[in-house]
Give the backbone structure.
Amino acid sequence: MQKTSFQDGTLYLDKAIDDAGFLPNIKAREQMRASVEANYSGQYLSAVLREVVNAHAHMLVKKSTVPVAQPTAAQNTEAINKHVQEVIRQLSVEFPDVNFLTSATNNKILGEFVDSQGGNITMVAMRTAVRLMHNLLEKNPPPPLPPVPEPEPPKEVLRVLSDGTTQLPLECSEWEIQQASKPQLKDWLRRKDGAKYGGFDGRL
């Protein structure tokens, strides 16, 4: 009678352990093999395997009977959306000139490329797509230029009048007017009228 090979014996024992509802256990399997070889002349028959597994059940652990909860379609969709959003966020940092958020053209170009590469939206695939298709992708509008500051009005240059006093500023306070000398006041009124009618009289 042909002796069962070591490899075939391993397969028979693993299948018997699995069929009995136990998890694989190398140590238990080797003791079962020794039992088959010593007590059953190395015959790995179904009845022998069942008896050997039962005899070594104390060394084995039963498989869990609690079914593993499978993610729902909604959970899968949410996970995919989060992954895509994270990829787009990273791409927006690396390629700030490309419109990833609102361009239907870019979605089509990048989607077709990813589909041609197997359909997996990974950072590597999307980065490669953007680099290869960069010239075809719609770009974000350039940022607006900062507003040009309005030039400050020229500062009024005040001159010394004939009486040695200095001209009053055109925009002066009531107190300054009351304290002004006659030449100052006369000069101020002349300049004020000139500014009012669009001219400027700078005579002293």
